[in-house]
Specification:
The complex is a heterotrimer. Chain A is an alpha/beta fold. Chain A contains 28 helices and 40 strands. Among the domains of chain A are: 175 residues, Beta Barrel (Barwin-like endoglucanases), CATH 2.40.40.20; 179 residues, Dimethylsulfoxide Reductase, domain 2, CATH 3.40.228.10; 91 residues, no CATH class. In chain A, helix 9 packs parallel to helix 15. The longest helix of chain A is centred in the first third of the chain and has 30 residues. Chain C is mostly helical. The longest helix of chain C is centred in the N-terminal third of the chain and has 33 residues. The chains are: A alpha/beta, B alpha+beta, C mainly alpha. Chains A and B meet through strand 1, strand 5, helix 3, helix 8 and helix 27 of A and helix 3, strand 2, strand 3, helix 5 and helix 6 of B. The complex binds ligand MGD (2 copies), iron/sulfur cluster (SF4) (5 copies) and molybdenum atom. The site of one iron/sulfur cluster has 15 residues of chain B, from helix 3 and strand 3. The site of one iron/sulfur cluster has 14 residues of chain B, from loops. Chain C: Its main location: membrane.
Chain lengths: 1023, 247, 377
């Protein structure tokens, strides 16, 4: 059998057998493994690898027996800016968070939340099936993201050691350095990167030399350290102490100007405060009709879960009917709720047209609350049983060339003798009477009037605020408004009629959808609808948040003041002050042409991170020497910022960039140093809800697991606080070290580590007002506050630590739900007047044009900074499509690393409306190219009916370049890019520069200076 | 529990199932009162309250270590345009129905799948041969082979939690309050009350599986296989293992 | 306008029955139908058909050994196969299958052995290197009178296989494509097609006899006609709406272009070999054989993988139609590897051309002159 054929056969046989072996290797392996061919699960019978129950609750007695291997602690989620109180379940041995649920004490996670007096054991029972209400009534939740973000703790791409860049900025190459080297280098500066000398923080902290030679208004050179922050995650007070009171820089900003700043400013215009920008939220549970225009309850919104929960309940079990006015249909609407939850498509950026149409109709049909609006003062409001009031009846000076144009007529203008200074609070506002202007008193005043007033300085034209609003509203026909916003007249009328058919149990709510080119006025107009029916502070109407308990200013410790504190001063880096205060203005005025300024100024706005990007790259109003990014990601979040990136990466432009962050996101990626920071459950902080909660609520966060960051030489975990303390000590800054925190008796306590600050903060929270009761031993054990008990005892006074322990055991301090209302009125009422005419707004001049803008709500098509219309630059014929952004219900801007989310939704195709798709031959699954004047992107299309005509909508949270979407090399070892982290597209890549700006800057709303992410002019094509 | 009665009434179709459930609930309770009480777990999903947040989906993954390529529960999200009406969103939570007549059970060759005392349909993992016959037989795609343990896997109604008096993970964390869980044998339980007071339906009533998961507000175009394009799934979701690898 | 639905978030379900399962159902159907085709000659004495029957027997044995191994591989816990015999869940067709499969394999092997026994014995008597082995094979005797009852029993087991495999899949109501009474018949008919296809290819490789080729080709034509008729009937019933399960089965895939292609492809895979086998039976064995194998395989692939690509509650189609990843593909190829190996062994070592029915008049001396070991192939 050895002939050739047989050899061939033998070979064939061997080959065949080999193939068989390869195909069945797995089977053989499995066979070899025996009874468990896979990984044997923990429980080999029915529950597999499910985590053992956290405790047992006896159905008869309700007694709770803990699982000794697990800790249950109340702390905070930072899976998004909502910052909910949650309960985390920790595997004690593995120092690992296993799962997250809500905190039933917290209104952010539970409704109705349990009384604060409930023991921790009772709080456990509240959420258990065998507990009261079968656990359903008091169930406490984390959202999809909140359930997943525990994975961020163990994210393999987390930064755990201080990093220093190797090679150019943004090259993705790093080396690890010690904490001590980090502090030394950033403080002392020098030739840090072999690119020339870099000024260190010590040199920059010069409180004498002006930041700008010859322009003292900008304060000292110390201001050239500028700090960009995300939202207050509960640690901002620590940062502000370091930055402002200690280092002496005045330049701190948060992300508001690319979050929902336009809405907040528009709301601030009505609430009369452009800096704090108060905003009210509907009383979701008791309102009968809500118009959500530019906010998507249950899809996003803050507080995300609370709004989602309350709206879901109200539309099912309660009396709520609502309309979501939105260019894109998303989870805010709910089909099974039928007519109770409706969607009204709107053209992007045109809410002002819709709102002004409704206002017009309300004027025409006298459907506004005249009685409410007629109260010209708090006293008048009190007298008529109102809980708020407005300046509808106040008289406004309307002569264009009057020096007080746009201001309200005051007693001093009329020559009345007043007690205080002119135009101070003591100077009365004037209303009209049969005898002419009189000081607003305790009785109602006429709503409408236009005429002349005789003043000591001559006659002046005056109108009531409401008259100005009516004129503005009547300046366009309903048909024009309808055409502009794409909502038919009948629908506009229907909306207005329904809105005015529920007394005060109706409300308008908004937020992110205002981030368009007309956003500020759109928001102001929407909010004015609330004032026209007088719903503020009423049950079923709108309400301001109850606020929280301050950790910094409390009865026990003063965490703000300390010996040697400095006062930061100088006009802010973001130009959110009147241009007229600058030397530039004075110089130009002297030269005869005060306007335009070199770049826009925004006196009616808060700190503007968006404008900072322009300031940074242009060095206007001055150059920054050092920039700190803390937990923020403007390079991902700001539309169009990519156009500024190259300059920002140039060390000659901003010589030192330091990031404090647990991740290498798109912004930290371009920094020189990264200071590792703690992730949620490892960290301290106190936050309050940013809205939507009628009672006082402070959420406390504490390290329920040992943080993962490397330790410094003293054995402390590196992080924000360690870094700032380290720098402060090396520089000898005041306010840190052994004698830094005064108690009520003035005795000074140390601030050497984070605990020194936050534990004392907890005492303040606990002792404010009626102090909380002491934590019992059982509370401490059940909540595992035992973990930090020794620290508490060592740091705090004997009478304090059990109070602080209560704060951590219950995850914060929460006023009971019964405090929400006093009868029909909100307990925490907002008292200053609603401004139907905002003087600050009505009187300022745009720095770039020298012109005025209306002081009432108005509808204006978007403009660039020189006052030219956007559609004149980018006409509809060439740019027929508009792109908008909407939040992902699942992702937020930084959750992409929580891998459980990507398995549910792995990417974000672009949403194209059916007609538009048909016109371009686009079908679901096709690739399309979107082009705007700012950029282009390619993506898969999903064709839907739920998109407004000529609109393309992109879900936010994908299209990353940071977080591991690109290679990261540390100490020569490369962690390869994971394509899943890069999945999808980012609308901001389509963002535009304002072509009329001499100094490059992204397109922003002209008043609020906020980023434009909705309504980008675009073209679409199938590829 | 009177499964035949439920079966019969269930077969009539979804409009009458609400009544059916309440009739059944009442009769069950009468019977149940006599003997010592044995709970029969059920879930009532109020679709009007679901916001599609997927908290349930993720909670289940975390609680039950569901491997990366599978779900014990998830929430389908649809855009629905009905004849001449405005488009509307429907979020539809899906999980094992713990059927009283579970097609997955009789096919199991080795009796690894069984119905537990409180109505849960469970798999004894130490017995399961991984033949996946049950996966084929379940009309709801509620089962899968767990590629870590190599046995059939599915929702257990969080057996390991209910045994300790806790709620299932997905119910505890349900943000909208859509998922409700409790004892169908107890006429006073929240779920029994919901069944009495609402018109409810089940998925795929034509399969006569007698589910213990009921829906409030379920549109019949969604109660079976849903016509229309499937959601966009980019290619790379398959490479589950690259995620999280690296340094 | 009717209701329009766009799924925005949805889960994808992997196929739980992997390509190994396809291989099992493919091979076992070939084995049992081949065995049944071998019976007339070997059991009922139709001598004229002996050469085809030998091919059939060889096919039955080789695929019959390969198939259960594929089945084992599709178990995710293969080591627990013994549980099938410890717990028999009476309501499960698979549980019954667990008894039927080994019965069939054992009976089929015994039957084949008994047919070869006389020649084994003879070869054991010769003086050559492997004689001892054949002495062992023959168990020290040449009698094979029991071949006939064994063959009948194996035939019954084969019918059992056809019944259980058909029913196991058919009873799955959750998969409309599977849940039609046609399915067991289609499995059987396509099994015959597959078996004849393999026989044709083997004929071309081993016998190269135009007469035999034509015989098998003609039978193939009949089998293909049956498959075609079943297919047409399936469509007719489904379209007529008399049987809701059929209509549902059709509806579950209608409207997807990939399924239209599959249907056309399937029709071509039946029609082309049918026409060729009918018109040119003497020269198309290779091509008709290969297409027939392909048709039988594709039918199962489509039913199993395609069936699993149809969501039970979701929208669109899942991605099961293409073998996912190297693992699945290797499973398919590996199974064929084993079969090819067995074929080589069989044709090399076994006196397959001498398999004879236990005719009463046969004695040792009457065995054919050419010993198998020098058989030219
Ligand atoms: N799930 C989830 N929740 C979140 C977050 C998250 O990332 N994900 N982030 C949190 C943060 S930081 C914030 S600020 C809030 C924001 O919460 P929201 O304000 O509710 O969310 P956005 O998606 O920014 O905008 C709301 C809606 O405005 C729509 N829109 C766009 N242009 C226009 C327009 O011109 N007019 C109208 N009427 N609508 C328009 C968008 O389509 C979108 O649906 O959500 C918080 N909660
Ligand atoms: N196109 C488009 N653009 C948008 C939006 C949109 O809807 N569409 N939304 C806008 C809105 S509303 C906002 S608020 C902004 C957000 O923009 P930013 O506030 O600038 O960005 P975030 O990603 O929220 O930044 C927070 C950073 O903190 C870090 N981080 C994450 N978790 C933790 C933690 O646990 N601890 C610590 N210490 N750090 C952590 C991460 O690196 C993360 O990037 O984006 C805006 N940009
Ligand atoms: S809404 Fe969700 S992600 Fe955001 S903080 Fe709350 S639980 Fe975390
Ligand atoms: S839903 Fe499926 S897996 Fe669950 S019991 Fe019913 S048939 Fe079985
Ligand atoms: S996979 Fe396991 S549980 Fe399912 S039928 Fe097979 S043996 Fe039974
Ligand atoms: S009951 Fe438990 S196992 Fe079932 S879906 Fe909910 S969390 Fe998952
Ligand atoms: S957790 Fe509740 S509200 Fe959220 S998707 Fe699941 S069922 Fe719906
Ligand atoms: Mo935001």
């Amino acid at each position: 059998m050895t002939n050739r054929r047989n050899i061939l056969k033998g070979v064939a046989a061997a080959g065949a057998l080999g193939t068989f072996g390869a195909g069945y290797a797995e089977t053989v392996q499995k066979l070899a493994k025996g009874k468990w061919s896979g990984k044997k699960p923990r429980d080999e019978h029915v529950v597999g690898n499910s985590i053992p129950a956290e405790f047992t609750i006896d159905p008869e007695t309700g007694d709770v027996t803990l699982n000794p291997d697990q800790a249950m602690s109340y702390t905070m989620c930072i899976g998004c800016t909502t910052m909910c109180g949650v309960r985390v379940r920790v595997d004690k041995k593995a120092n690992k968070v296993l799962r997250v649920a809500g905190n039933p004490y917290s209104p952010m996670s539970t409704d109705p939340f349990i009384p604060y007096e409930s023991s921790v054991a009772e709080s456990f029972a509240a959420m258990a099936q065998a507990g009261p209400g079968q656990g359903l009534t008091r169930r406490s939740t984390a959202c999809g993201r909140g359930n997943a973000v525990l994975e961020q703790v163990d994210n393999p791409r987390r930064v755990l050691k201080p990093l220093k860049r190797v090679g150019p900025r943004g090259s993705g190459k790093w080396e690890t350095i010690s904490f001590e080297q980090l502090v030394e280098e950033v403080v002392e500066g020098g030739d840090l990167f072999g690119e020339g000398s870099v000024a260190g923080l010590r040199e920059i902290r010069d409180l004498e030399t002006p930041a700008v030679e010859g322009a003292p208004e900008f304060g000292p050179r110390a201001n050239r350290l500028v700090w960009m922050n995300c939202v207050d995650d509960g640690r901002d007070n620590f940062v502000l102490r370091w930055l402002k009171q200690s280092f002496g820089s005045n330049n701190f900003t948060r992300h508001g100007s690319y979050c929902g700043g336009a809405y907040r400013s528009g709301s601030g215009a009505m609430f009369g405060d452009f800096k704090a920008m108060p905003h009210a939220k509907p009383d979701f549970s008791n309102a009968e009709f809500i118009i959500f225009a530019g906010t998507a309850p249950g899809n996003a919104g803050n507080p995300f879960k609370r709004i989602g929960n309350l709206v879901a309940k109200a539309r099912s079990d309660g009396n709520l009917n609502y309309v979501v006015v939105d260019p894109v249909l998303n989870n805010a609407q709910n089909g099974p709720s039928g007519e109770r939850a409706r969607w009204v498509p709107i053209k992007p950026g045109t809410d002002g047209a819709m709102a002004m149409a409704m206002i017009r109709w309300m004027f025409e049909n006298e459907r506004f609350n005249a009685t409410y609006l007629a109260n010209p003062s708090k006293a008048a409001a009190d007298a008529t049983g109102e809980t708020s009031w407005s300046n509808a009846t106040h008289l406004v000076i309307t002569d264009q060339d009057h020096p007080r144009y746009g201001h309200c007529l005051r007693g001093s203008d009329m020559g009345l003798t007043i007690e205080g200074e002119a135009y101070s609070d003591a100077d009365p506002y004037m209303v009209i009477s049969e005898t002419g202007p009189v000081a607003a008193g305790a009785s109602p005043a006429p709503l409408f009037h236009a005429g002349e007033a005789e003043t000591p300085n001559g006659a002046v034209n005056i109108k009531t605020a409401l008259t100005l609003l009516r004129e503005e509203a009547m300046s366009r026909e309903m048909s024009d408004y309808a055409e502009d916003c794409g909502i038919p007249i009948e629908k506009l009328v229907e909306l207005a009629r329904e809105f005015t058919s529920h007394g005060r149990k109706a409300a308008v709510s908004s937020h992110g959808g205002m981030m368009n080119g007309s956003g500020f006025y759109n928001a102001y107009a929407l909010m004015m609808l609330n004032t026209l029916i007088g719903n503020l502070n009423w049950k079923g109407g709108t309400m301001i948040a109850g606020g929280g308990f301050s950790e910094t200013k409390g009865p026990a410790y003063d965490l703000v003041n300390f010996p040697g504190k400095v006062k930061a001063k100088g006009l802010p880096f973001g130009r959110n002050v009147p241009y007229e205060k600058t030397t530039e203005f004075k110089t130009k005025k002297a030269a005869g042409a005060p306007y335009p300024a070199d770049a826009p100024w925004y006196p009616n706005a808060p700190g503007l991170a968006t404008e900072w990007m322009s300031s940074l790259v242009n060095g206007y109003p001055y150059g920054a020497e050092a920039l700190i990014f803390r937990n923020t990601n403007p390079i991902y979040g700001i539309p169009g910022v990519a156009h500024l990136l190259d300059k920002l990466k140039d060390p000659a432009v901003v010589p030192l960039i330091i990031s404090i962050d647990p991740f290498i996101n798109e912004s930290t990626a371009i920094s020189d140093y990264i200071v590792p920071d703690s992730v949620m459950y490892e960290t301290w902080g106190f936050t309050k809800p940013w809205g939507g909660v009628a009672t006082k609520a402070t959420c406390a966060r504490w390290p329920v697991i040992e943080p993962k960051m490397a330790q410094n030489a003293e054995g402390q975990r590196v992080g924000l606080e360690t870094f700032l303390i380290g720098v402060a000590k090396r520089m000898g800054l005041p306010g840190f070290g052994d004698e830094a925190i005064p108690d009520a008796q003035g005795k000074l306590h140390p601030l050497n580590r984070a605990e020194d600050w936050y534990l004392r903060g907890a005492v303040n929270v606990a002792m404010t007002g009626e102090p909380v009761s002491d934590a019992t031993d059982e509370d401490i054990e059940l909540s595992n506050v035992a973990r930090i008990l020794d620290d508490m005892k060592a740091t705090l006074k004997p009478e304090e630590w059990r109070k602080a322990a209560t704060i951590f055991a219950k995850g914060g301090r929460y006023e009971n739900i019964e405090r929400s209302y006093q009868g029909d009125k909100a307990t925490y009422a907002f008292n200053p007047p609603m401004l139907v005419w905002n003087e600050g707004l009505g009187s300022f001049r745009r720095a770039t044009t020298g012109t005025h803008l209306p002081g009432t709500p108005a509808w204006r098509a978007p403009e660039f900074s020189d006052g030219s219309k956007v559609h004149d630059h980018y006409p509809r014929e060439d740019w027929p499509v508009q792109v908008v952004s909407f939040k992902s219900p699942l992702q937020n801007s930084y959750s992409v690393g929580a891998k459980s989310l990507l398995r549910i939704v792995a990417s974000n195709p672009v949403n194209v409306g059916r007609d538009l798709a048909q016109a371009h031959g686009i079908k679901t699954g096709d690739m399309v190219r979107l082009t705007t004047p700012g950029g282009t992107l390619e993506s898969v299309a999903v064709v839907r009916d739920g998109v407004a005509p000529d609109t393309v909508a992109i879900e936010h949270g994908f299209g990353h370049r940071g977080f591991g979407a690109q290679d990261i090399t540390i100490d020569g070892t490369t962690m390869p890019a994971d394509p899943r982290l890069a999945a999808g597209v980012l609308l901001n890549d389509l963002g535009m520069l304002d072509p009329t700006r001499g100094k490059a800057g992204v397109w922003v709303d002209p008043v609020s200076g906020t980023a434009v992410r909705h309504g980008l002019p675009a073209r679409i094509e199938r590829i | 529990m009177d499964t035949t009665r439920r079966g019969f009434l269930g077969a009539i179709g979804q409009v009458t199932i609400g009544a059916a459930a309440s009739v059944a609930g009442a009769s069950q309770s009468a019977e149940a009162a006599e003997e010592s009480h044995v709970p029969h777990w059920g879930m009532v999903v109020d679709l009007r309250k679901c916001i599609g947040c997927q908290a349930c989906t993720v909670a289940c993954i975390m609680e039950n270590a569901v491997p990366e390529d599978a779900f014990r529960t998830h929430v389908s999200v649809y855009e629905l345009v009905k004849d001449g009406q405005d488009p509307a969103m429907v979020m539809l939570p899906r999980l094992c129905n713990h059927c009283d007549d579970p097609p997955c059970l009789p096919v199991c060759p080795v009796e690894a799948t069984f119905k537990a005392e409180n109505g849960e349909v469970l798999v004894d993992a130490s017995k399961c041969v991984g033949c996946a016959y049950c996966v084929q037989a379940c009309p709801y795609d509620a089962r899968f082979i767990n590629h870590e343990t190599q046995v059939a896997d599915k929702c257990t109604f969080c057996f390991h939690r209910t045994q300790h008096g806790l709620l299932p993970a997905c119910v505890e964390t349900c943000v909208g309050g859509a998922r409700n869980f409790g004892d169908l044998n107890d006429p006073d339980s929240e779920v029994s009350i919901m069944l009495r007071e609402n018109e409810v339906s089940v998925l795929r009533p034509e399969m006569h599986t007698n589910p213990n998961v009921y829906y409030i507000g379920l549109d019949d175009v969604l109660d079976g296989r849903v016509a229309g394009d499937s959601a966009y799934h980019p290619e790379m979701t398959g490479q589950a293992h690259a995620h999280g690898e690296g340094l | 306008m009717e209701t329009q639905v766009q799924e925005l978030v949805g889960a994808v379900h992997d196929a739980a029955w992997q390509p190994w399962a396809v291989q099992y159902f493919f091979l076992i159907a070939i084995s049992v139908t081949a065995l049944l085709m071998a019976l007339p000659a070997f059991v009922f004495g139709r001598h004229t058909d002996l050469r085809a029957a030998r091919l059939a027997l060889m096919v039955a044995v080789t695929t019959g050994i390969t198939a259960p191994i594929a089945l084992l591989a599709d178990l995710h816990q293969p080591f627990r196969f013994w549980e099938f015999f410890v717990y028999t869940h009476k309501s499960s067709w698979m549980a019954w299958g667990a008894w039927i499969v080994p019965s069939y394999v054992v009976l089929m092997l015994l039957f084949a052995w008994s047919l070869h026994r006389p020649e084994f014995y003879r070869m054991g008597q010769d003086d050559w290197r492997f004689a001892w082995l054949f002495r062992l094979f023959s168990l020290g005797g040449a009698a094979n009178g029991f071949a006939r009852p064994l063959g009948m029993l194996a035939g019954v087991a084969a019918l059992g296989i056809l019944t259980y495999t058909g029913m196991e899949v058919m009873v799955v109501r959750a998969r409309p494509l599977w849940n039609t009474p046609f399915l067991p018949l289609q499995f059987a008919a396509t099994g015959v097609v597959g078996a004849l296809g393999v026989m044709l290819v083997l004929e071309r490789l081993l016998n190269r006899d135009a007469g035999l080729e034509a015989t098998i080709n003609r039978r193939l034509a009949i089998a293909l006609a049956t498959v075609g008729a079943l297919g047409v009937a399936w469509f007719a019933v489904a379209l007529s709406g008399i049987s809701p399960v059929h209509s549902e089965a059709l509806a579950s895939v209608a409207g997807f272009s990939v399924w239209k292609q599959i249907a056309l492809w399937g029709a071509a895979s039946i029609a082309i070999p049918f026409v060729l086998a009918l018109t040119l039976p003497q020269s198309t064995g290779w091509i008709t054989g290969l297409i027939a194998i392909h048709a039988a395989w594709m039918f199962r692939w489509t039913v199993f993988m395609g069936g699993q690509a149809v969501p039970k509650v979701g929208s669109g189609l899942y991605d099961a139609l293409m073998p996912s990843g190297l693992g699945g593909l290797m499973g398919v190829i590996g199974t064929f590897g084993l079969w090819v190996f067995l074929m080589i062994v069989y044709t090399t070592f076994l006196p397959w051309t001498d398999a004879t029915p236990p005719a009463s008049g046969q004695s040792f001396g009457q065995t054919q002159s050419k010993p198998a070991r020098t058989q030219e192939i």
